[in-house]
Hints:
Layout: E1 5-11, E2 17-23, E3 26-31, E4 34-38, H1 43-53, E5 62-66, H2 72-78, E6 86-90, H3 94-101, E7 117-120, H4 124-130, E8 135-140, H5 160-169, E9 170-180, H6 185-193, E10 197-204, E11 213-220
Parallel strand pairs: 5-6, 5-8, 6-7, 8-9
Antiparallel strand pairs: 1-2, 2-3, 3-4, 9-11, 10-11
Amino acid sequence: xxxxxxxxxxxxxxxxxxxxxxxxxxxxxxxxxxxxxxxxxxxxxxxxxxxxxxxxxxxxxxxxxxxxxxxxxxxxxxxxxxxxxxxxxxxxxxxxxxxxxxxxxxxxxxxxxxxxxxxxxxxxxxxxxxxxxxxxxxxxxxxxxxxxxxxxxxxxxxxxxxxxxxxxxxxxxxxxxxxxxxxxxxxxxxxxxxxxxxxxxxxxxxxxxxxxxxxxxxxxx
Length: 221
């Protein structure tokens, strides 16, 4: 088996270091030695977009995606949305955006080159606080889940204040989809108390290719 090699390094939000690794045609981003994402497993990221885009496929719509990752969620959304759609991508780490515009771009078919995409190198929380009735769908993949935080600063996002900000940012009948590495009954209950019609979907990390199960929390207004 080929060894991993380091391609790029960048400071991680809150301390530590993000490291982009490559092994053959496979890429992975790790922080402090822990894998955050891999080109080998992206089925659940694509499923997020599939769920959110189902009611939007034939209408002018605006979507906010929190967390660029390796670009698979953005690509899956673009493949399902009409030419009139707008996809705002919030990515806090400029290096991750640069990697997606460079060495990682071919993985998901260069989604950032699509004219429907606008990238904001800002915390997704800032965009949510500024918006009111702005988005048809909000997709959040900025942590390993509501409790398995990769950034402590995101804790508010999954609590009452964060869910209230998300509600304000959504249009009537809007949808929230949150990615998680595992189930979280407490978060599902908070979603329900915040006024969302809540569903938990288990989806394989590699899509039809299997792998561990991830959880998508779907909240509909």
